[in-house]
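hey can u check if this looks right to u? its 206 residues, i copy pasted from the old doc so theres a chance i mangled smth
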Amino acid sequence: MLADYNSVLPGLADRIVKMAEVEQNHAHRMQRWFAVLPFTGQGAAFLIALAGLAVGGLLGSVTTKRITGRIGTGMAYVAGAFGFTAPLAPAPLASLCPGHASGGPLVLMVLFCGEFLCGFGMMVLDISIGAIFASVIPDDIRSRVSGAFSAVNYGARPIGALLGGFLGSSLGLVPTLWIAVAGGVFGAALMVPSPLPRFRLQPTQH
């Protein structure tokens, strides 16, 4: 089989094997890192936040259909945008909790709840926009629209990462986190006066 790849492009089979080896080595390093990560302080905060994100995402994925059926797909998307961004506030709020430097129980609870709501909102947002795309975009241009959407969506992230790093170095971590929360909520608020919240899928489109 690998010889067939080489017939298309010389050396392609070797590049595929190396890519698989790199991915496998990365997975092994991550597994070892999680195995030795102490369940105290920052290690505990990271694992608790990750658990909250996973549980919220799972619950959001199984309840989105019920939510969209009750309030409409467009409104669910806008609500998911708020649900994904506003709950980021517990991250900077955790710095106000007693014992935040050592990852006390209150800090862990705040982070878990915040990430849980973020994961829930993220899944409602993603599933809702997928349903909207499938219903309103004609089949013959769907790939182009999806490509443009992905280019803007993922293309903005490196810019945001650079800006976040600059602000974090200049203003500090907590002020930068508050700016991120405000920016996310502001972006979600821009959709409120648009026609999107009133969008509903027709029964034949479910």
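The chain has a mean pLDDT of 81.
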